[in-house]
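Course exercise 7: structure representation. Students receive a sequence record and must write out the corresponding structure in token form. The form below is the worked example handed out in class, using Cytochrome c (143 residues). Read each field label carefully; the graders check that inputs and outputs are placed in the correct fields and that the protein name is recorded exactly as given.

STUDENT ID: A-19
EXERCISE PROTEIN: Cytochrome c
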Amino acid sequence: MNRKRFAPSLTILPPRIGRQSLIAFCLTLAMSTSGFAVAPPADPVRASATRPPLDLRDPARIEAGRKRFAKTCAGYCHGHEGVGGRAPDFKGRTDLGPQLTFDTISKGRTGADVMPPWGDAFSEEQIWELVAYLQYLGRQPIE
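STUDENT ANSWER:
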């Protein structure tokens, strides 16, 4: 097989280009030709979790999430019913979308609002049940 036939032309690059510059060039080229760049998922096992696989308004799922939340999340960080803990309250919060919530529970968070990752402790279904409960709390009025 003649490899030169399949190699892209790099004649538009300066003659002394480094590896980092080549990577930057390829990313720029990819973004300009496709309109956006798509990074590979950080964790291919969790890549399927792009859309809730269950009804987030299902009372049984909300209840399962509530029980799990009460056991593992409420006591130390988030408070009973998602209010009054060390972390921000969940009642009345409409800014937490389902996927963001799933990712935060699964992967955790660093920085000022540190949170441990729970992706190895809970299954995807269990995390989505937590998301269902947090979405439910977000629909509740702030007291």
